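DM from R.C. (forwarded with permission)

"hey, sorry to bug you on a friday — could you get me a structure for this? deadline for the figure draft is monday and I only need the backbone to look sensible"
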Amino acid sequence: MAIVKKTSETRIRAAAKQTIRYIVHRREQGQKITRPLFSWEIGDSRKLSAYQAIDRAPKGSKFLRVAISPDPKREDANRDLNLRELTRETIKELAKRYKGQAVTFFAAIHEGHTDKRHINMLVIVPPGRLTKKEWKHMREAATANAKKQRAELDQGRGIFRQKGSYQAYTTIGKSRFMKRDIFDRGAATRPSVPQCPVCQGELDRHGRLLECTNCELSFSGGRHIGLQFEGAELKLSQGVGGV
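My reply, with the result:
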């Protein structure tokens, strides 16, 4: 599930402008860099536009520093989600709380200094307290968009997932609860649990399927589907005798 959380809140406009400088210029690997800002409009925004929006915000407006992070294993493992789209869909959910009142944000993507890509942003909202339920709705909106993007991207790569879950299906020859290494077609290696042929993680039983506890691939006990590796991508191909 995606993470959506508030890291700070202020009504002080100078502090809000400092947040803009932080998200744009946060140091990365010891070097100061400049990240592009974005908002509702397609394309990049300027710091000056953010400063003007802060100055023009009605009296009593609140300035929230918010972070959004898709799940790095289930949603953004390939670091290919459109984080701008995900951000806009999340803030659309927030805007429903204010029923026609203006909600503005300025955001930047942080990805070079961490293995968990995320968005840091300043959100300008009218007065009023946000409840835990409303933050929950934002997390659900971010997660729904991340899942939608993940499904579309995976289908484009030839990976098909079960509706409502993050499982990719293939079959492995005679791996079904045989308590042996599925890479070893002999009986020399006999671990206590079967292992995933992709990441060598443990496989748990779910009905007639084996599910990897690490990469969440699911396998049946049949044959005739092989795994073909091309670079860093996993593709399904017709084979003989399983993996």
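R.C.: lifesaver. The helical segments are 13-25, 47-56, 83-95, 132-156.
me: no worries. Confidence is low (pLDDT under 50) at residues 164-191, 222-243.
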